[in-house]
Write a structure and sequence with these properties.
The protein is α+β, with helices and mostly antiparallel strands and 217 residues long. It contains six helices and six strands. The strands form three sheets. The chain has a two-stranded antiparallel ribbon with strand order 1-2.
Length: 217
């Protein structure tokens, strides 16, 4: 890419070997000048009329401009207060709020005993899988307590064959104690304790989901 021919200028070439800035500075027709009086110090100076006519007051130097603005604000305290309020709001909006500090907690998963590093102090499980497994264990524990209550109420006596169930046996042994619905669920039976009774696994399976009461030896 061709650049400006002026030494030290890396801007893109525009015309006649110059960039747009240097081309306009060399070939621009100067504006007519006029003589003005500085409203701050009273000195006379010459300035381009086209630029000076844009403003209400024309100053001989930036220092006189600053002094004039300070006197203007001192005469109008309400304006100065409004400017200070706007500056304070702008500064407050530009300042980014401090990010909250992250507090790291270390604990062990209650299911798989995996060491966890997390931000939540109440987190008990390392994954959704362990959470679901713990929920299933809690439900199974409540279900076991309910089964034991029914067995103890019936003294481990099978309501179908009137024989005692062996409490030391577990499913799938055919003489293990199980829970049977007096009114089968397929006929609208519920899970209330009044509708639950103790039965051998073999007796429960032989009866199935029917209203009949088989007498199993």
């Amino acid at each position: 890419m061709r650049t400006c021919d002026i030494d030290g200028c890396d801007k893109k070439h525009s015309a006649k070997g110059l960039c747009s800035t240097h081309y306009n500075a060399i070939n621009r027709t100067p504006n007519p000048t006029s003589e003005y009086t500085c409203p701050m110090c009273g000195d006379s100076f010459v300035k381009e009329a086209a630029r000076a006519n844009r403003y209400k007051n024309v100053f001989c130097s930036p220092d006189c401009n600053v002094l004039y603005q300070m006197q203007y604000l001192e005469r109008r305290p309400a304006t100065l207060k409004a400017m200070a309020t706007r500056a304070a709001k702008k500064l407050a909006s530009s300042v980014q709020p401090e990010a909250p500090q992250c507090v790291v907690h270390y604990s062990t998963c209650k299911v798989c005993n995996t060491l966890m590093c997390h931000e939540n102090a109440r987190k008990s499980y390392c994954s959704k899988r362990c959470d679901n497994r713990a929920r299933g264990l809690r439900r199974g524990k409540r279900h076991n307590i309910r089964r034991v209550a029914v067995f103890e109420r019936d003294a481990y006596m099978c309501w179908i064959c009137n024989q005692r169930c062996d409490a030391s046996l577990t499913v799938p042994h055919r003489l293990a104690a199980t829970i049977d619905h007096l009114i089968p669920q397929s006929f609208g039976g519920n899970h209330d304790l009044d509708n639950l009774a103790t039965a051998h696994l073999h007796c429960n399976s032989s009866r199935g989901a029917s209203w009949s009461y088989p007498m199993v030896a």
